[in-house]
Amino acid sequence: MLSLAGVMAGYGGGNVLHGVDLDCPEASITCIVGPNGAGKSTVLRVISGLIAPTAGEILLDGQPIGRLTPDEILRRGVTQVPQSYALFSSMTVRENVLMGGFLIRRDRALLKRRLAAAEELIPLVAERSADPAGNLSGGQRRLVEIARCLMLDPRVILLDEPSLGLDPRSLSTVAGLITRLHDMGTTVLLVEQNVRLGLGLATRGVVMEGGKVRLTGTSDEVMNHPEIASLYLGGTRATTAEAAHAAHAGPAAGSGPPEPRTAGRQG
Questions:
Q1: Full-model pTM
Q2: Starting from the edge strand earliest in sequence, which strands make up the sheet with 78-81, in order?
Q3: What number of other Cβ atoms are within 10 A of residue 141's Cβ?
Q4: Is residue 24 within 8 Å of residue 211, measured between CB atoms?
Q5: Residues 135 and 123 in one domain
Q6: 74-89: per-residue pLDDT in tens?
């Protein structure tokens, strides 16, 4: 349902992405991994309209969205949780979540239903509704950020480093929420440095390096690729089940640039 073909984009006149090809099937969890500077977060920003592509196409259900404004892309059901904490600290949890419904603010009944749905899926939203967001822990803030996205009943959620700065318990809670969103039919595209977490949750994996996609396939195929295992997993070949177990335990991933032999677009 979401695809990139030959996308180039960057900052200040220079490209960070150099012909990115990427497919996210409907109701899938696609995880992008790779070294720092590979262009992973830039992919999310160009999809959400925060950066305009200099070349290539971005399609949602076969319709081009690469030249649309961020609010137009939001209206088509694509939301994003940024890498850095993005709540308004002095505002309450409820106020922060309601900000996610800005585009539907004139329909009070719909706004109320969406808030109730977010509270049911993420009870913290109701439990801490009157508390300032600045009083929340890192994991709690991440849950509220996702709840804010849910106010638009998104078809696609872009998650940039959802595990960043979280303790193991919070990591498990956030991972469980991502799995529930997938079970509900939401398409998820996430960027993760924690390779075990990301690929353990995902149905599809993508490895980026130097602004290009170097490897793509099922999460199991990517996790079990010998060079990925060597560089990220300490030389062990993890099965999908083992990776999922490790993801909920929240271990830190290794680091290092992948150099897989398989390049280009698959599936």
A1: 0.85
A2: 78-81, 156-160, 187-191, 29-33, 204-209, 212-218
A3: 22
A4: no
A5: yes
A6: 999 999 999 887 899 9
Looking only at the bridges linking them, the beta strands covering 14-24 and 187-191 are unpaired
**Position 107 in a domain:** yes
CB atoms within 10 A of CB 116: 12
Q: For the chain, how big is the Rg over CA atoms in Å? A: 18
Cα separation of 16 and 18, whole Å? 6
Written as six digits, the tokens of 15 are: 């490209």
Residues with Cβ within 8 Å of residue 16, at least 6 apart in sequence = 9, 10, 39, 42, 211
By CB atoms closer than 10 A (0-12, 13-18, 19+), residue 111 is middle
Residue 252, token pair as written in the block: 């830190």
In a domain, 161, yes or no: yes
Range of the domain at 95: 78-153
What tokens were used for 169?
A: 């318990």
What is the 8-class DSSP label of residue 116? H
Give me the count of residues in the chain. 267
Residues 160 and 50 in one domain: yes
Q: What angle do CA 41, 43, 49 make, to 5 degrees?
A: 105
pLDDT tens-digit series, residues 26-68: 999 999 999 999 999 999 999 999 999 999 999 999 999 999 9
**Are residues 8 and 134 both part of a single domain?**
no
Q: Are residues 162 and 247 in the same domain?
A: yes
CB 254 within 8 A of CB 232: yes
Report how far apart, in Å, the C-alpha atoms of 78 and of each of 2, 12, 27, 56, 241 are: 10, 25, 13, 19, 29
Residue with tokens 């993508």: 206
